[in-house]
Every structure is written in C-alpha cells, then in structure tokens.
Amino acid sequence: MAGNTLGEAFRVTNWGESHGPAIGVVIDGCPAGLEVSTELIQQELNRRRPGQSEFTTARDEPDLVEIQSGIFRGVSDGTPIHLRILNKDHRSDDYNQITDIYRPSHAGYAYDVKYGRHNPFGGGRSSARLTAGTVAAGAIARRIIPSTAITAYVTRIKDVEANITDHVTEEDVEQSLVRCPDLVASERMMAIIKLAKENKDSVGGIIECVINEVQAGLGEPIYDKLEADLAKAMLDIPAVKGFEIGSGFAGTRLFGSEHNDPFVIDDKLVVTSTNNSGGIQGGISNGMPIKFRVAFKPTATIGKEQRTVDSLGVETTIAAAGRHDPCVLPRAVPIVEGYAACILADHALRSRMNKS
Amino acid sequence: MAGNTLGEAFRVTNWGESHGPAIGVVIDGCPAGLEVSTELIQQELNRRRPGQSEFTTARDEPDLVEIQSGIFRGVSDGTPIHLRILNKDHRSDDYNQITDIYRPSHAGYAYDVKYGRHNPFGGGRSSARLTAGTVAAGAIARRIIPSTAITAYVTRIKDVEANITDHVTEEDVEQSLVRCPDLVASERMMAIIKLAKENKDSVGGIIECVINEVQAGLGEPIYDKLEADLAKAMLDIPAVKGFEIGSGFAGTRLFGSEHNDPFVIDDKLVVTSTNNSGGIQGGISNGMPIKFRVAFKPTATIGKEQRTVDSLGVETTIAAAGRHDPCVLPRAVPIVEGYAACILADHALRSRMNKS
Amino acid sequence: MAGNTLGEAFRVTNWGESHGPAIGVVIDGCPAGLEVSTELIQQELNRRRPGQSEFTTARDEPDLVEIQSGIFRGVSDGTPIHLRILNKDHRSDDYNQITDIYRPSHAGYAYDVKYGRHNPFGGGRSSARLTAGTVAAGAIARRIIPSTAITAYVTRIKDVEANITDHVTEEDVEQSLVRCPDLVASERMMAIIKLAKENKDSVGGIIECVINEVQAGLGEPIYDKLEADLAKAMLDIPAVKGFEIGSGFAGTRLFGSEHNDPFVIDDKLVVTSTNNSGGIQGGISNGMPIKFRVAFKPTATIGKEQRTVDSLGVETTIAAAGRHDPCVLPRAVPIVEGYAACILADHALRSRMNKS
Amino acid sequence: MAGNTLGEAFRVTNWGESHGPAIGVVIDGCPAGLEVSTELIQQELNRRRPGQSEFTTARDEPDLVEIQSGIFRGVSDGTPIHLRILNKDHRSDDYNQITDIYRPSHAGYAYDVKYGRHNPFGGGRSSARLTAGTVAAGAIARRIIPSTAITAYVTRIKDVEANITDHVTEEDVEQSLVRCPDLVASERMMAIIKLAKENKDSVGGIIECVINEVQAGLGEPIYDKLEADLAKAMLDIPAVKGFEIGSGFAGTRLFGSEHNDPFVIDDKLVVTSTNNSGGIQGGISNGMPIKFRVAFKPTATIGKEQRTVDSLGVETTIAAAGRHDPCVLPRAVPIVEGYAACILADHALRSRMNKS
Q1: In principle, which of A21, C252, C331, D157 could form an S-S bond with D204, CB 3.0–4.6 Å?
Q2: In B, which residues are within 8 Å of A228 by CB distance?
Q3: Which residues of chain B have pLDDT under 50?
Q4: Residue of chain A with shortest Cα separation from C35
Q5: Looking at the predicted complex, does its ipTM rise above 0.95?
C-alpha cells in the first residue's frame, strides 16, 4: 500500500533515507540454490556509485553492500535476502533550521503535503541514492535469468545523439565515461556536460536498453503486461519523464502495413523479420530482443539561482551549493539495467505457474 | 500473480474473453456511500463501444453493463461491485479449424508459447474489447475523486498534428468524431483514416490526457510513484508503445535551469509558474495539472496481405477479413481516461493512510 | 485490502450478496491445461446446497454454476475463470421497512457500524450462502493437487461424539445424512438436531478434516505457515469459533517426550511414527496426513424469541420466522473441504518457486 | 508469495536467521506523525528475550533493537521503518558436519524437502527467535490503536489451570515469572516446569488474550475476517497448535438460544449482555472485548534421548544438548500480544477506506 515493494514473486522491499545511517532492501522470493556473492552485487553498485568521474557528483560514498541474511556459504537458501548499504556521511543530527527552502522540481514540497508536516529531510527518501538497493537486488535478479543479457547505454545527451547500429556489449558501454558506446558522440557528450557544470547547470538525455535471449512467454495479458511493468519500473527511477518500447512514439507515424512485424521461420524457430514490437506482443515476450528507451530530464539540483518558496510559504531564491551530478545518465545506465532485471526475474518466476 | 487485477486499494479484477459469453470486472475496495448508477457507467461505455462512426469497427456490440452486486438502491454498500457486459455475437462453438494463422504483431503466438498449447482463440483475452471492464470501473473510480476532471483527446493521427492551446473540455472533445478538439486538424485526421481504410491499412497516433483539480499528495515515493502507475496503466492498453509526462522526451533537450518549475505563491497557494513536471514531483502529485501523452501504434489487424506463419510453424500469408478499427485512437480516448481514473482513485484511497 | 480475495497464487475473488441477482467468484492463477467441467464443480455445490434433507434449511436454491470464462472446450486456458451462481429467490425490491431488528450474534449491527450507514440487507454479504463460490473454486483447486485426498466429516454434534478409528472415505461420509461416518452416532446426531428444530433452537459441533497424500514442502516459514493459512480459511467460514491441528488443545497436556513425533524410515521414506504434528512442522508439510478440527457454534438464527435492539437503538425482541438450518455442520463438510482445497492449491503453486 | 510479510496496510516484512549476523523487520505503511522511540520497542523485546528467569532458556541475547529508518526525531515520517536486532552469539562459520540429525517435531526435515537441499541450519529460520521482529513491530502497531489495551496471560500449563475471574492488567501478569495472574496457580505452574526441566523434558499450555476498547467495525466480511486474521497470526507463532475465540470449542455444546449474545442498550450504547462471540460478529468487531485462547504444544527440543533419522536417511537417536526453554509460554505472552497488535493495527488502517 505504501509503495515500497517492487514485484510480486521476486519482491524487493526498500527502506532507508539519505539522512539516516543506512539504506537497504529485503528480497523475498529468491529461489534456493542460486550462487550469490558480495562481489557479484558490489560490481553493479560500483557502476552506480558516486564519484566515478568528473561527470558525476564528487560526493564520496563507497556503497559497500553487506549481505545480512538469506545466503549461506555463497548460495541462496530460499529465505529473505537482506542487503544493507551504510550511508557514510549522513548528517541528520546537525540540522537545526526551522524553515527550509523548497528546491524547484524536487519532491520536498509534495512530501510535506502528503505527510501533513514539514520534514527538513523530506526529499531524503526521494534521493536517487535510494536506487542503490534496487541495483543490488538486480544483481541477484540476473541469477534467476542467467542466459538473458541486459545492456543499457546512453544514446543522447541533450542534443548530442549517438549513432549506434551494431550489437552493444557491456564492454562497449564501459569504455566511455558517459556510458555511450559511440565514442565520437561520447566525446561531444562529455563536452556538453562539462559546459553545463561550468555554468552551474545540468543536462538530460536518453538511455536505451536492449535485452537479448529473453525467454518467450513472460508477462501477463491484462494488467501486468511485461512492457507495462517495465514502463512502471523506469518511471520509478528519479528524473525519468518518458518511456517507449519498440517503435515507440516514432512508430505512430507509420501505416499498419509498415509497422507490423512479419513472422518468419529462421532455423526452425518462429521469429519476426522486423521488431517494431520491441520483443513484446500482447504484453508477453515473443523471444525477440526487448528494446526500450527512457527519457531523463536534466538534474533538478543546480548551482544557478532560481525562484522558489520556503516551507512557510514565503517567496525566495535558492542556489544549490555543493555536490551534485550535472547529468545523471552515466550513473543511470546500471540503474536502468537493475530495475529491468528485477522485472524480468519477477516475470520469469511467475511464468512457472502458467502451465499445469 | 496472473496479472488480472489493477490497483491495491481500489482493486479491479478483470475476467472474460471475446469468444466467451460475457466479460466483466469485480471492483473490490469501493467505499460505501457513493452514488453509482447503471447510467453513469453506461455513458462511459458508450463512448468506447464499437460502431460509433465510420472511423471505428462496424462490429455491433451494445456493451450494456449489468450491475450484479455491491450497489444497493443506487448507493455503494462497501462490498465488491461486479459489472458484467454480455458478448452479443461471440462464436466459440462454430470454430473447427485445427491450424491457425498467427496475425502479425498480435498476441496469439506469444500466448501459445506462454500457456504451452495452441488455443485457436488465444488472442481473445488480448482483444481491446477487454478494456471495457476497466472503462466501466473508471466510471465508478471517478466518484471517489469527484472534483477531479480527467480529459483525454487525440493530438496526432499519423502525421496530422492538432494545435491545442486552450483548456479542453469533454464537450470540446465530443464535438469531433475522432475526438480531437482542434476541428480543423480533426477533418484532416478523418481523411487520413479514411484513406487507410480504403487501402486496407491502419494508422496510429498520440492521445494527450490532462487531469485538473488533483489533490496534492497522491503517489508513493519509491516503487509506486504516481507517474509510474499511470505509465503502467497506459502501457496496459492494447497498442500503446510509449508514455511521457510533463516535458517528456522533448524536455531532455533543455538545460536544468530551463526545465525546473519555479515555486511561486498564487493567491496564498504554493503553485509552480511552469509545469514541466506534469503535476508530479518525486512520484507525488503537487496539485498542478497532471499532463501526459500516450503513443498508439497503427492497428495490427489489417486487410492487406502480410507474411506470417501458422500454428504448425509453416510460412504463409494472411489478409484479415471483416471488421476492425482502421485507427483505435477515437475509441481509446475514454479508455485512457478510464484507466487513469482507476489509478487516481486507487491513490486517493491509499492517501488516507498517510497521516496518523 | 477489502478482504474479498483468498490466496496469492490461486486467487479467488468473491462477489455477490444473498439479496442480489447472483453470486460468484473469479479465480485468477489457475494454470492452463487442467480439465474442468461444470459437472465437476456442480457435484461439490450439490453437497453444499440447501434443501438436501430435513436437517438442513428448506429454502430451495438449485445453486447451478455457470462457467463464464477461462475454460475452453473443457480445459483451463490460463485466464481468469469466472463462476456465477444465480440467486433463485432473492427479494431486494420488496423491502420497505425503515427500521430493522438486529438478530443476536449476527453481522448486521457490526456491518452498519463498519460502513457508516444502515443497510437493511447488511447481513446479506455475511450469509453462509457466500461460501458457495469458494466451494466451487475448491472443485477446481483439487485439479491442481490431483493426487491429494481431502476428506472432512462430522465428529461431534452438541454432546454426541462419533467414534472414528479407521480411514474415512467420501463414500463413508455420504452414507450419513449428517455426514458422520460413525452411523450409530449419526442416528443420535439426527435425533438431537430434530429436537433442536422442534424447539425452534439450534446446535453446533465439530468437523474433522484429513488430507492424505499431501506433497511435502508446502507452506512458508514465517507468516504464511500452512497451518496458519488453513486456520485462517476455517475461521473465514461463518459460525466457526475454533481450529486445532494435530494434537491441538489436548496436546498441551502432554510432556514433550510424549508429544514429539519420532522420525523413522518406512520403505526407504522418512515418515514419523506418530503424527501429533498433524502433518505440518515449522509451517511446512512433511508428507504425513494433515489433520485438523473445526468448531462450529450453534446456528445464530433461531425461531425462539430473543432479546435484542433495532437499528434505531430501541430494545425489542425477535423470533426468526421461516427457513434456516437447525445445524450447519452437515452442509459445512463440503465447505471445509473446499476452503482447504483452495489453500493447498495455492501453496502447491507457490512451491514451484522454492528452487532454482 | 514467499510468506515473509504480515499484513496489507501495516506490512511487516521479516528477514534473518538465527545463525546469521542479525534479524529484523521492515514496516511499510506506518502513518506519519506517530511518536516512536527505541525504548518503546525495547520494552516489549525485553519481555520476550531469553534468560529472564530459570523458566526460560539460559541463552543470553540482549535483543537490543536499532531503528535504522523511518523515524525522525522520535516521530514516524511515513517511510519504511527498519528495525534490526543483532544476533550476539551466532555461529555459522564453525559448522563443519556433513550429516545432521533431524530433531523430532522440528522444521529441519520439512525445510530440506521444500528447498531441495540439505541446509545444516535449516531450522534457523524457523526458530522462535524470529518472532522478535514481530514483537518489535507490535510495539509500533500499538501506537496506531492507542486506546486499545491488549493483555495476554497464561491460563494453563500442562494440567495446571488458573482461575481468572477479574479483569487482568499487564501489571497483574508481570507479577508472575510464568506470566499467570493467578498467583496460586502460578506457583504450581513453576513447579511443573521445574520438574519437566529436571527430567530433560518440556511442557505446553494455553495463553488467553483479551483486547479491550477495540473500535467497532474492524475486519473484512468474507476472507479477511478479523478472527481469521487473528487465528492465522497465532498459528504463525512457533509451537501453536490451536486457536479458539469467544465460546470456542466449548460453545459447540450449547443450544443456539444459550449461545446467542442478546443486544442491549447500556448507557445509550449498543452492547451485548453476554460475549460468546468474543467481540467479533460476521468477521467484524462489534466493540465488545475480543477474547481468544491459544494452545502451545510442549517445546520440541528436549534433553531426553529420542528416536529420529539423519539427513542421509539413517535411523539414529538424538538428545539435545544445551540451552532451551522447558516451557515457551512465559515468553510467548508478549509474542501473542505483539502479533495481535499487528493484526489490529492493520485492520484499523484498512477501516479508513470503508466509507466515502
């Protein structure tokens, strides 16, 4: 009811605030017998953590994960897996201001209305830091779908568009500090981020995610369509304003005869010769690659002075001091992958109930 | 688990197939004391039902709703509300083919893989007809949020874009057979749909939805963000390939300083002077209008001959005979509204638990 | 949230009131490929329906089930199964009293407080008639656990106790009009029920249920223990005031050394030489027979005059006219079995996720 | 699905094993604005913790709770509350046996079958230690229903029955080391526990729980009846074999005319002159005291030698060494209260949705 659990069969319950001592997730529904190590999880967290390069926030959080339950001698035992990540430099005690200034396009004001009282750390739960738990859970989720490859990458930063034609591997992505496999575009993306940073401003862009070797038959027909659950998971990521799958918004300009994906036989398998469907038809995966794109707005926290109001309702201005990402997309790549992994693992488990 | 229930507090469970005798929904969680009549529900169903004009399928289904429980003398009594809609001309018994031809970009193939067996009416559950139940539920959902106005309309069909600058009312929308309040564009939209129909082809487009007078504080912070639940609901509608809220994909081209919505005081209320956020910040409504756009692909069922395979895995061709919508958007307008109403009612009920 | 759904994987959503046109259930999560017929379901409903003998209410309801979705040519297709049962002689329209008299130990008063308004048919949802849907669902649930035998029977009516030492079959049970396999006790039970009926009074008693050939490993460790879900299901049956499993209340008088069930090897299988555990240890079935007992209070509706208050809060008396069961236990036997079948099927499906 | 969450609105998700570093719960759905302190929670944990007297296990676990999220300056902020309790002397690393001996009437064997592999600490999740998290959650649950008084106490140990006629307070209960307010019976209970301990044996008994000042209208009509959820919660407590409410099993011996609770007016309020219903009618609280009884079997772990098999399926014997409770009831009193508090808080929150 209070919305802190993701999934039905692979259930990730998320707790913690950026101003508290720690954050974490409890994963309920991970089958017994999977090999899971701290290293496996840490690897994904390292891709997400702050301080990786000059294109991300300078805040230093090692984001070390502790496995507190559910794994026995490197193997899941079927009980809840609790993963905890300490907040290295939280600061809830030294806060004494009575009035706060609402940052434009942040959650603070909406939180205060929702919970009926002013919380000076109101935005603490809405911090992108809270995605770390889902990324950690995603590392375990991938073990449930071991043959499936989930690869996200940046395709556009502001107006700089990448040209990506080939199959993209994680190695291709990690070559670029902004996680764009088109290294020429990558350079120009870095330049625009640097410019924004110098101007105390921020930029957004688009991340694409391709999922190969997906089992056909995942997803539920009416209200838990696979693309619907992916859309929801993506919109749950802070700063996301849009989602499109397969042909997406552009596909609306085609005639049906151009858009439909013909079924053909390829090496005795049923495949489609095009993939405008993006690997999902009628809410259910058809075995073709799943392909979707996610729109990230420019980071809301910027150093430039902006108009706003304070928690007493008085108009004022704000210029955010300190450390923040001028562009969230490089760090959002493993986040997109982690959320997608959780959704796929959930549906893979659910699909065990399809047949008698 | 099997994905036939929408919502957590206002729960809509959907049953039925287009080849069976009837379809319906059970609504669990509707508070006692709301005035609900058959007329109220029928009005929304009439906007969705087939056969409204030459721009929709000719199939004649009156879609008359029967209230079978939960309403006593015109008032909800707090128990489950069962709404049933008969299928006037279903035909499950006269079907004797052993082999079937999979329609391109339809659910039939994916269903067969999912459920492990060939069902000649496999796509029957994936029919857009199944949205009728949610539309009916949406009519009741609106009673839970009586002061909120939900208005959807067509903004683009294929390449024909409407020019919409003013506040749009339901009356504006209903003036147009294609439900586009820009009557000039509306004429051109009708022309392109007619052309597609003549060519045994189909077209898609975009629907925009604006929700005014939304209570601030709806939505949950982490995994059930209001925009995430709206995205999921929209992607649950057949033929939808994309969703964007507020500035959406276009907003990714702005600097943060351009994109952020300044808070200002207007008549003693906190509002924002722009609304790139689309009425939701950090997953929670902030009281500004919620505004989102939904991409619909061109209808998959077309009369043109297309390549495909049959259920035995043999390559063949298909040219769909009979009745189908050359463009789903006019009928999808009340569907978008109905799904959105269910999500808002669900979150309105959930918000009753926010405070002690 | 509003409590009209039973189960997590095999989900039964219940709608309808005894004063409305029909009642029913939607079963979501039934795997595809199970043979299900109207006859299969009707057979269980016939055992529960009123008017079977002089020991049950004279009200005549044929309780004919209609399958409205989810079954195609006698086989489940993986989509929701909607089962509907018409109310033959409901009478909501001819009711014009403004004040009502609350029947002692009925739900009417509590309903009015809960929903904040007086509903003259307030108890209509609490009628034991509403168990019909679960019994119907139970008939399908049994197909999910085909080798498991669920057999309930009456062991005591008021002070008349049966002597049951052997394995009991459904045939043994059905030989007795009061569903007690000890035919000597059965005669005396019928006598005490007749006496109660003549005195415009009612009696209660105990039903025992034995479940053989249960798959080991069903049940979840902490909050969804198998015995806990069975207890909940039984207490959901109207008139039930107690539940005990295995040694139950009597077992509290033993020493641990007397109560513990030694593990032994029998034909290469691990079994226990006693079964005080009742087939469940630590919340999980161990393969031994599950055995539990359910206490039913005497029927609340009686013809004798009783003190009470009316819906305006004025003290008065009531003597229920008309048809009611002087003892619910004979008809409750298939109800106990049906609810138990739903719980077992739910856990059987859930157990598919235990292992990688 | 995996059964580690209790409740729908007040959701308690439980993680940890007795052989791991810690255990804990995440509470999702606690409204903002409640005063919650470590002391409040610790007080309940202290009543449950081991080592309180010679009648409980000698194992020394301080069971200190840490609040890790959701509470800001002593007040709940509406976000998940994570409570963690360290395991002081867990020992997972020094375990090197390959074969294990299954303890009779323990969960170990059933766990191994369920999860498909032998886990030497298989019973670790089934330990009564895992109830600590629910007790901690119960302390917070009580803040949601502040005027409700939940009082449990021992009424029988083996054959020693207490004589309790008056209203019992927590002070009455805490006067007795075995938590029986009848101090004469209490002495005899201590004697029988001592005897069992000397004989390396164990005893069980019955706990009664009375809940005063319950809001009328809690509970859902069909599948989440209040008594059903209480029964389920009680059967989730390790060693529980039975539950009865109001007149319970004894009430089955009465005529309906004796059993029914007449409604009367008392000081302008509707009450019942007897309370065989135990405060709940038709699944919904009626404002009268809720009264139920819970049967606990004798502790399964005993020092006496018993027959059993090992994890390779070889017959052997076992005599449990070390520390264990010869009788769980004294420590189970706060556990019964804690579980009941969670259920009541859950239904209190859910009741906010009853009316429009």
Answers
A1: C252
A2: 231-236
A3: none
A4: A356
A5: yes
Q: What's the pLDDT score for residue A119?
A: 83
Cα dihedral A275, A279, A282, A283 sign: negative
d(CA D73, nearest CA chain C) in Å:
31
- C-beta separation of C1 from D350 below 8 A: yes
Nearest chain A CA: its distance from C27 CA (Å): 14
At D79-134, the pLDDT tens digits run 999 999 999 866 655 555 667 899 999 999 999 999 998 888 766 788 899 999 99
pTM listed for this prediction: 0.97
* Cross-chain Cβ contact B356/D76 below 8 Å: yes
Do C354 and A78 make contact, defined as CB atoms within 8 angstroms?
A: yes
Min CA distance, B231 vs chain D (Å)? 23
Name which of C156, C205, C252 is nearest D297 (Cβ-Cβ).
C252
The answer to whether the Cβ–Cβ distance between A26 and D9 falls below 8 Å is no
pLDDT band at residue A187 using 50, 70 and 90 as cut-offs: very high
CB D142 within 8 A of CB D341: yes
Contact D248 C241 (CB under 8 A): yes
* Cβ–Cβ under 8 Å, residues D333 and D44: no
Chain A residues in contact with C354 (beta carbon < 8 A): 31-32, 78
| pLDDT tens column, B124-149 | 788 899 999 999 999 999 999 999 99
Q: Which candidate, A70, A65, A84, A61, places its Cα nearest to that of A30?
A: A70
C247/D243 Cβ within 8 A: no
Burial class of B86 by CB neighbour count within 10 A (0 to 12, 13 to 18, 19+): middle
* DSSP three-state, residue C347: helix
pLDDT at B19: 85
Chain D: nearest CA to B224, how far in angstroms? 13
Closest in A13, A33, A115 to D13, CB measured: A13
Tell me the helix, strand and coil percentages in chain C, rounded to 5.
Answer: 30, 25, 45
CB atoms within 10 A of CB B283: 27
- Do residues A87 and A294 touch, judged by C-beta distance below 8 A? no
How does DSSP assign A189-254, residue by residue? Answer: HHHHHHHHHHTT--B-EEEEEEEESPPTT-S-SSSS-HHHHHHHHHHTSTTEEEEEETTTTGGGGS
